[in-house]
Amino acid sequence: QQQQQQYQAPYIDPRLYGAYAQMGVRDAAGVWHEHRRPATTNRLLTPEQERERAERRANSLDQRNGARPDTAPLRIKEHLLYPDYDDKGRKQLDKHYEFFRTGNQLGKGSFGSVEVVRHRATGRWRACKTIAIGAPEEFELVKTEIELLKKLDHPNIMRMYETYHVGCTVFLIIELCEGGPLFDKIVEYHQHKRQFITEQQVQQWMRQILSATSYCHQRRICHRDLKPENILFRTKDENSDLKVIDFGLSSTLSRIQMSAKEVKEVRKGTLGTLARLLPTLPSGKHLIPWHVRRVKMQRAGTPHYMSPEMIRGQYDEKCDCFSIGIIFYQLLSGKHPFYNPGIDNEETVKARILNEEPLMTPDALGSVSLQAKDLLKRLLDKNHRRRISACQALSHDWFRLSANHVHLSKLTPSVFEGLRDYQHHNKIKQAVLNYLAKELDERVIEDLRKKFKALDKGGDGTISLEDVKTGMRLVGYPLPPSSELSRIFESFDPTGSNRIGYNDFLSALLAKRIKYEDAVREQQLRAAFERLDVHKEGRISAAALREALTSKGMGSHLTEEQVQQCIDEIDKNRDGYIDWDEFYACML
User: Fold this and answer.
1) Those residues with Cβ within 8 angstroms of residue 201's Cβ, 6 or more apart along the chain or in another chain
2) Where a domain ends, among 385, 401, 417?
3) Cα torsion 372, 377, 380, 385: sign
4) ∠ CA(416), CA(447), CA(529), 5° rounding?
5) Domain shared by 386 and 432, yes or no
6) Cα dist. 177→119, 147, 174, 245, 314 in Å?
7) Are 412 and 368 in contact (CB under 8 A)?
8) CATH number, position 205
9) 498 has pLDDT over 90
10) Model confidence at 37, in pLDDT bands (50, 70, 90)?
């Protein structure tokens, strides 16, 4: 009891409340004492100071006696090829990436900061997104973003390479996009240059945005926060590709529907007025109920880009298409269709989105084609059941008018030879090729990206069996038997979806490049070998290989016998391990 009276709750940084939801100590009598203290300081720290402080706090709290098992730091177990660094995260992060003290911060906000880093092994530049988790809901957003970026594989969606975690701080190593947001390009043309963006240029950008969105929707993923600020140019080149970013507010439709709640609302409109005019029955009931029950989904996103159904709280994936319609209008006109700066606020913008139609006059849009206006109207249809989907939009007449045949010249018989050879590769070689495809800078694989787009006739970010057959006919490549074509697609996706993703396509075509290009081969294979050697033994054991192959689903369908068979195929000296020379020979 004396110990209980003398006990004083130690100060805990308020930013750690999310990770340590109920911190406290247990006294000699076994009684648990919880404590929370308000913030006593609001001093701003540099990202480096935040990382150091979070690490110190986490280490000290982890070592505190009597800590509850269920209040351990939140763990995020996501990594590209092997489990992320956890206990020694900061050391491993600094080991693999070089940080710079000044001049390399790309942005800073309430979530944390983004800065340029350099991968020490390859010398490639990447971006590091630092997120300090301060509440459970923030953790859920970060967790969702990591889970989705892990699944998404599309040329117009930002890549995530790996994640690290130190205490309550998460570091996402992501693709570096140097060209700035699409919003800046709109401002540059319409405010600085005082000119409209050409319809041909808008068409190229819209095709990429719709392609990325269609890819997500096919996987039942809803972005929920599409806006020009969340679409970046990969480089500063005039013809740079676009990358959709920020999946923190995204979610699967099944998860959105599961979190929906039933609410009771006053009946509105003509029927509501009639219900209140009719007399009440002797039992006290109304002839027409005054209230209705509706299912409300969680609203998310930026109010200026919300669809009508998102504002009402009943939506599906087509809410993204309305947001794209607003972006489309801005690209054509330089103005927001429902927002007047200095006049409107969030509430008036929502009212305009619900009740007003955007101006489609030549003064507003310039001399755009009738097909462009038609697509714009279909995207901005307030009735989401009538609204055109992202997949349907890609087949709209506006895109057919100037179908892009530029990439067709990139198709050669070697493309299909690479796809056929992939099925014969050892599973380890397939995993390494898959890893290298993610690691290589897109400047290096620019020609492969164009080959992929040439085959992707539907523009949805995947290649179907029919796409491959059509491509083979175009270049005069002999069409293999149907049974072999099925085996080719099964080697990429054992689930039988008959689709080849972007990264899988790159993996298949990288095999020959590694074989014949010395500059790519030595450096990249050495980095891949180190990643597979998760136990840092200087050689790859069966346990290390199994851990590496299953951490991101690459080879997760393999049994232990199949993993051992892979080892036996490569292990020439029969010592039970794969050394560097054996690994190198396997990849050639």
Assistant:
1) none
2) 401
3) negative
4) 80
5) no
6) 15, 21, 9, 10, 34
7) no
8) 1.10.510.10
9) no
10) very low
pLDDT of 36 > 70? The answer is no
Q: End of a domain among 138, 159, 176?
A: 176
Burial 167-202 (b: 16+ CB within 10 A, else e): bbbbbbbbbbbebebbbebbeebbeeeeebbebeeb
SS (H, E, C) 331-386: HHHCCCCCCCCCCCCHHHHHHHHHHCCCCCCHHHHCCCCHHHHHHHHHHCCCCCCC
Q: Distance between CA atoms of 223 and 443, rounded to whole angstroms?
A: 27
pLDDT single digits (tens) 456-465: 888 888 899 9
- What's the farthest any 2 CA atoms get from each other in the chain? 94
Q: pLDDT digits over 354-400, tens only?
A: 999 998 888 888 788 899 999 999 999 999 999 999 999 999 999 97
Q: DSSP of 230-285, one letter per residue?
A: GEEESSSSTTPPEEE---TT-EEHHHHHHT-EEEEEE--HHHHHHHHHSPBPTTS-
Q: Clarify whether residues 138 and 74 are in a common domain.
A: yes
CATH of the domain at 482: 1.10.238.10
Question: At residue 39, does pLDDT exceed 80?
Answer: no
Q: In 168-230, where do the E strands start and end? A: 169-174, 221-222
CA separation, residue 377 to residues 308, 387, 452 (Å): 14, 9, 31
Short-list 416, 404, 403, CA closest to 475: 416
Q: Tell me the CATH number at 58.
A: 3.30.200.20
Tokens of 205: 């950008």
Give the C-alpha separation, 48 to 115, whole Å: 11
Q: What's the pLDDT tens digit per position in 80-138?
A: 333 344 445 677 888 889 888 666 777 776 667 889 999 887 788 899 998 888 777 77
Which residues are bridge partners to 160 per DSSP?
174
What are the residues whose beta carbons fall under 8 Å from the beta carbon of 542, sequence distance 6 or more? Answer: 563, 564, 567, 576
Q: Tally helices (H) and strands (E) across the chain.
A: 25, 16
Domain hosting residue 287, numbered range: 261-293
Q: What pLDDT is attached to residue 356?
A: 93
Of the candidate ranges 186-200, 267-281, 282-296, 377-391, the one whose mean pLDDT is the lowest = 282-296
State the total domains in the chain: 4
Dihedral angle sign, alpha carbons of residues 247, 557, 507, 204:
negative
Is 129 assigned to a binding site? yes
CB 412 within 8 A of CB 509: no
| Burial degree of 496 (CB within 10 A; 0-12, 13-18, 19+) | exposed
Name the residue with tokens 């319609």.
Answer: 325
Q: Give the helix/strand (H/E) hosting 296.
A: strand 291-296
Whole-number Å distance between alpha carbons of 435 and 583: 15
Amino acid at 507: S
| Cα separation, 343 vs 428, whole angstroms | 60
pLDDT, tens only, 230-250: 999 999 988 899 999 988 777
**Tokens matching residue 309:** 């159904």
